[in-house]
Amino acid sequence: MKRTIFFVFFVSFVVSNLSAQNWDINTLHRVNSWDNKFVRNYNKFISRSEPYVAIGVPVAMALTAWAKKDKDLLKDAVYVGTSVAGAFVVTYGMKYLVDRERPYDRYPDRVHPYSYESSPSFPSGHTASAFALATSLCIKYPKWYVIAPSALWACSVGVSRMNEGVHYPSDVLAGAAIGAGCAIVNIYVNRWLNQWLFGK
């Protein structure tokens, strides 16, 4: 009886894993096939904007805080910046632990790469940083005019990485979860960091 249960469980696991893999590559194939000129240009721009926005926003906040001598804004800049940095560290550590092959290498007949990456595929670093930035901004400034553009930009980064052919949907979803998770955990980390940096 135990062997039968184990066998059924094992077969179910294998089948569900294959289904998940099929969903992953089938979804990627569809998104990667969007080759309308506007869609391609938009995704290319959004994908390339990620490092500049993710680094530029906290740096701009810090410079503005320094110029205005605004301690609260400086604290916010530290929180946003360390959220992005944390997501970057976690993501790149996981990339080399998991060492997942890029989809255009694994499925050259189904995925057209519009760009090439030297690092492993899982999880998406661009998406993690984008969601860390968006989530931390939304936590600090819970206004619709911050939440709406932040969420749109972060989601667009995730979609753009699939349209570029460099990430599976599961890479993007994992990156989004890591980025948002780092921003949430960093709320508690920054309580200690603020005491160390600012004395309270």
From TrEMBL:
<feature type="transmembrane region" description="Helical">
    <location>
        <begin position="51"/>
        <end position="67"/>
    </location>
</feature>
<keyword id="KW-0812">Transmembrane</keyword>
<dbReference type="Pfam" id="PF01569">
    <property type="entry name" value="PAP2"/>
</dbReference>
<keyword id="KW-0472">Membrane</keyword>
<keyword id="KW-1003">Cell membrane</keyword>
<dbReference type="GO" id="GO:0005886">
    <property type="term" value="C:plasma membrane"/>
</dbReference>
<dbReference type="InterPro" id="IPR000326">
    <property type="entry name" value="PAP2/HPO"/>
</dbReference>
<feature type="domain" description="Phosphatidic acid phosphatase type 2/haloperoxidase">
    <location>
        <begin position="80"/>
        <end position="187"/>
    </location>
</feature>
<feature type="signal peptide">
    <location>
        <begin position="1"/>
        <end position="20"/>
    </location>
</feature>
<keyword id="KW-0378">Hydrolase</keyword>
<protein>
    <submittedName>
        <fullName>Phosphatase PAP2 family protein</fullName>
    </submittedName>
</protein>
<dbReference type="GO" id="GO:0016787">
    <property type="term" value="F:hydrolase activity"/>
</dbReference>
<keyword id="KW-1133">Transmembrane helix</keyword>
<dbReference type="InterPro" id="IPR036938">
    <property type="entry name" value="PAP2/HPO_sf"/>
</dbReference>
<feature type="transmembrane region" description="Helical">
    <location>
        <begin position="79"/>
        <end position="98"/>
    </location>
</feature>
<keyword id="KW-0732">Signal</keyword>
<feature type="transmembrane region" description="Helical">
    <location>
        <begin position="172"/>
        <end position="193"/>
    </location>
</feature>
